Amino acid sequence: MQFWIGVKNVKTKEEFVMKELQKKVEYFFIDKESELYESAIDLRYREFYEKFNRTRESIFDEIEDKSLKIVACIDNKVIGHARLFIDNSIGEITQVVVEQNYRSLNIGANIVKKLIEEGKKQSVEKICLDARIYAIDFYRKLGFKTNGEIFESKKSGLPHIRMEVYL
Ligand SMILES: CC(C)(COP(=O)(O)OP(=O)(O)OC[C@H]1O[C@@H](n2cnc3c(N)ncnc32)[C@H](O)[C@@H]1OP(=O)(O)O)[C@@H](O)C(=O)NCCC(=O)NCCS
């Protein structure tokens, strides 16, 4: 049965499934005490550490405890994460990741938007980040502009570029 036919603004089964998933996504600001924290660490480890032979311990860098952390969840499963560190009215976004199977559902954009909103509340002047080259357009759509030359990340060896947005 083509159960999605007649649903408003939905033309295909894929679109229907996508919209149903999007409805289920919840966003939470968390700290280390949260029951979601370990799952967020797992997700970050898989994307940013394991692939580059970095230890799980190196997740706990000098800004980890001081950063505001946001997760996206479906049915209490962490499927997205990012963090914002604020110092002297300048924000730094790091560790933006969405679980592979849940990409292209606007989850990454929503996570970053929520951190930008939070930055505004805290009178942050600008937010910076080091973007992987392949993600430049993702950040451009959120208002970020490139600043400087492409460089190789010391941690992953991947080409990156500095980006920033004034709030
Ligand atoms: C980059 C990442 C966080 C994007 O998350 P996502 O949830 O798939 O992205 P969204 O669905 O929110 O995309 C929002 C918009 O950006 C676009 N976009 C997303 N990723 C993109 C990419 N790699 N290149 C170009 N455009 C991209 C989407 O098409 C969408 O455009 P639209 O609004 O016109 O439809 C995700 O691909 C990821 O986790 N990648 C691996 C980790 C990583 O590289 N993180 C960034 C490190 S700097």
Automatic annotation (TrEMBL):
Annotated N-acetyltransferase domain residues: 27-167
GO molecular function: N-acetyltransferase activity
Superkingdom of source: Bacteria
Stored InterPro entries: Acyl_CoA_acyltransferase, GNAT_dom, GNPNAT1-like
Coiled-coil features, chain-numbered ranges: none
Protein name: Transketolase
Species of origin: Clostridium saccharobutylicum DSM 13864
